[in-house]
Every structure is written in structure tokens, then in C-alpha cells.
């Protein structure tokens, strides 16, 4: 989630670095924007790893997801409208009251859709032997990653990419003995370094080739083979870590709040207010303090949103407990 916030700091901050100059600040914003693809993909892998052995759809889970998305979408809309920060528009109202049906929160919409589909995806997985499962992943890898990367094809939806990652996570869960090394973490770190190196190379080439300068973070896309390599390496490596602590209430409390952190800070109204109006990211474009400032802002946003989500969760439990009694 910290990586995702870093991505939004860079991507929504309205930075406009000149293409004919390579600076530390430009390279830093290009580096942290990678956190979005990494964070999103790992979140889906974690979900798939556990959902692949679930019994099916649970109404309580569906209501929990929907209620959280709806609560934040409507509450934030009301705050911005009644405070005068945003003018009232029918279109915005519809999107806020039906957040999972629009691309306001594309990740939440895709993740919710994947959850609704997961029992049927599991049925397919259970009826595939290892050979056919492997072949399916190879074909999907070509369609979802290789072709879009090298041919620029855009016929694969975000939900399709989520399903692909779900199948990968299921494969790792079923055949875990083949993925037993902690060294995968180092491969992931190496992948991050090499992927960022591609940006530096594109930046330098862009000084002479204008077309290259337009998209130096080309290999940061969620469906790029480089990103897939990194997230799979990190996921498998951390999965294999032997942690002495079996259970930590604090860690689980914070972890349970991560989805809420996303719903708060990347709400369309909050997004514009946060990065442009409040923190004024672009004003630090040429500042020698941009790196330190960005780290502080990212941590602050994470902590504040985590606290807000924990409070919402506690209050919601108290309310429902009192209502039911």
C-alpha cells in the first residue's frame, strides 16, 4: 500500500519535468511510480493464494467489501459537496452512489468482480491437471503480457489481468514445493533495479530520440513481463520466509486497514485535493527537498488513512452490535 501511495504521489502530482534534462527529482518520481504496479499485482496474488482454497462466495464478505466502498465513496462525496470544495454534479453523485460500476475506483471494481468470479475460477483449476494448467498459464502469459508489451495490443482488460494473476497464485499454492527458496526475494530486488535501469536508459535515449522520451516508464505496466517477474519473485520469497511470530494482533489490525487506505486516499475527490491543492506536489518539482518531502508525505498519508479506517471499523462494529442487540 505504501508503494501504491508512492505511485499516486508521483502520478497524480502534476509533475512536468523537461524531457531534455535528467535530474535526481525526475529519476526519483520515475522510481517511486513503479510502486503502483507492484502493489496492485501483489495484492491480487495474495488474494488469489488464499481464495483458491475457499469454499465459495460468502454473503458476509460481499457485503463487507461493498459497504466499505460505498461508505467512503458517499461520505467523501458529501464532505466535498457540503464544504463547497466541489460543485454538485449529477454525474458525480451517480458515480459516488454506485462506485463499483464506474472506473472511479478501478482496482476496487476489478477486485470485487474477481471475488465474485473466484468460485468458478476454482472449479476450472480443480479440473485441470498440472500439464494443462501450465499450458493455460503460458498461453495467458503470451496473450496478457508478451503481446501487449511488444505489439502494443490493447484487447486485454484489467479484470482479465486480475484473473491471470489469480491463476498464477493458485498454481503457486497447489505446487508450493517447487517454489521453496527464499532467494526469490533477491531476484525481486534485482528485477526492481533492472526495471528502473530501463527508465534511466530511456531517459538518456530520449535526449536524442523524442519518441523515446514520451514514455520512459514503458516497462512499469502491470502486464509487463518485467513487473510479473518482480512481483512473483517477491511474493514467493516472502511466502517462504520463516517468521517466529505466529500471530500479531497489531500487524493484522494494520493489514486489515490497507483496503480502506486505498479507498480514502485515491477517491477521485480526495485525489485531486490531496496531491494538487493540499500537498502541492508540483511546487517541489525543482526543490532539493523533494525526496525527503515525498517520503514524509507518503508515510503521513498511510498513517492517517490507516487510523481513519481502523476508527471506521471499530465504530461500525459498535453500531452493528448495538443495532443487533
Description of the molecule:
- The structure is a single chain.
- The protein is 71% helix and 0% strand.
- The protein has helices at residues 2-11, 24-32, 35-51, 59-82, 90-97, 106-126, 130-151, 158-174, 184-206, 210-213, 225-239, 249-256, 258-265, 268-278, 290-324.
- It is built from 15 helices and no strands.
- The protein is globular and about 55 Å long.
- By secondary structure, it is mostly helical.
- It starts with a helix and ends with a helix.
- 31% of the residues are buried.
Concise overview:
This protein has 325 residues and is mainly α. It has helices spanning 2-11, 24-32, 35-51, 59-82, 90-97, 106-126, 130-151, 158-174, 184-206, 210-213, 225-239, 249-256, 258-265, 268-278, 290-324.
List keywords for this structure.
mainly alpha, 15 helices, 325 residues
Mind sketching the topology for me?
Layout: H1 2-11, H2 24-32, H3 35-51, H4 59-82, H5 90-97, H6 106-126, H7 130-151, H8 158-174, H9 184-206, H10 210-213, H11 225-239, H12 249-256, H13 258-265, H14 268-278, H15 290-324
Helix pairs in contact: 1-3, 1-15, 3-6, 3-8, 3-11, 4-5, 4-6, 6-8, 7-8, 9-11, 13-15
**Number of helices, counting only DSSP H or I runs of 4 residues or more:** 15
According to DSSP, the number of beta strands is 0
Percent of sequence in beta strands: under 5%
Distance between the termini: 36 Å
Mean pLDDT: 91
Helix content: over 70%
Parts with pLDDT < 50 across at least 5 consecutive residues? none
Shape: globular
Largest sheet: number of strands, sense, barrel closure? none
Radius of gyration: 21 Å
The helix-strand sequence is: HHHHHHHHHHHHHHH
Amino acid at each position: 500500500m505504501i508503494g501504491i501511495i508512492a505511485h499516486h504521489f508521483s502520478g497524480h502530482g502534476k509533475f512536468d519535468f523537461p524531457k531534455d534534462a535528467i535530474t535526481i527529482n525526475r529519476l526519483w518520481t520515475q522510481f517511486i511510480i513503479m510502486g503502483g504496479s507492484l502493489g496492485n499485482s501483489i495484492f491480487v496474488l495474495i488474494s488469489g493464494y488464499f481464495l483458491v482454497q475457499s469454499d465459495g462466495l460468502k454473503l458476509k464478505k460481499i457485503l463487507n467489501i461493498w459497504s466499505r466502498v460505498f461508505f467512503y465513496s458517499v461520505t467523501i462525496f458529501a464532505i466535498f459537496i457540503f464544504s463547497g470544495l466541489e460543485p454538485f454534479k449529477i454525474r458525480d453523485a451517480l458515480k459516488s452512489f454506485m462506485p463499483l460500476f464506474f472506473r472511479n475506483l478501478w482496482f476496487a471494481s476489478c477486485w470485487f468482480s474477481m471475488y465474485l468470479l473466484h468460485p468458478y475460477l476454482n472449479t476450472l483449476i480443480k479440473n485441470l491437471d498440472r500439464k494443462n494448467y501450465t499450458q493455460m498459464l503460458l498461453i495467458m502469459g503470451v496473450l496478457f503480457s508478451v503481446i501487449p508489451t511488444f505489439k502494443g495490443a490493447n484487447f486485454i482488460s484489467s479484470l482479465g489481468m486480475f484473473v491471470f494473476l489469480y491463476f498464477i497464485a493458485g498454481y503457486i499454492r497447489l505446487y508450493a514445493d517447487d517454489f521453496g527458496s527464499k532467494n526469490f526475494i533477491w531476484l525481486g530486488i534485482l528485477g526492481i533495479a533492472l526495471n528502473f535501469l530501463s527508465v534511466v536508459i530511456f531517459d538518456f535515449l530520449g535526449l536524442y530520440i523524442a519518441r523515446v522520451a514520451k514514455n520512459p516508464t514503458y516497462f512499469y505496466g502491470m502486464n509487463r513481463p518485467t513487473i510479473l517477474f518482480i512481483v512473483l519473485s517477491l511474493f514467493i520469497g516472502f511466502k517462504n520466509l520463516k517468521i517466529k511470530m505466529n500471530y500479531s494482533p497489531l500487524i493484522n489490525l494494520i493489514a486489515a486497514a490497507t483496503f480502506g487506505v486505498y479507498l480514502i486516499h485515491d477517491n477521485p475527490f480526495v485525489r485531486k485535493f490531496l496531491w494538487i491543492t493540499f500537498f502541492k506536489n508540483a511546487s517541489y518539482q525543482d526543490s532539493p527537498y523533494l525526496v525527503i518531502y515525498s517520503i514524509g508525505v507518503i508515510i503521513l498519508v498511510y498513517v492517517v488513512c490507516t487510523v481513519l479506517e481502523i476508527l471506521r471499523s471499530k465504530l461500525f462494529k459498535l453500531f452493528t452490535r448495538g443495532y443487533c442487540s
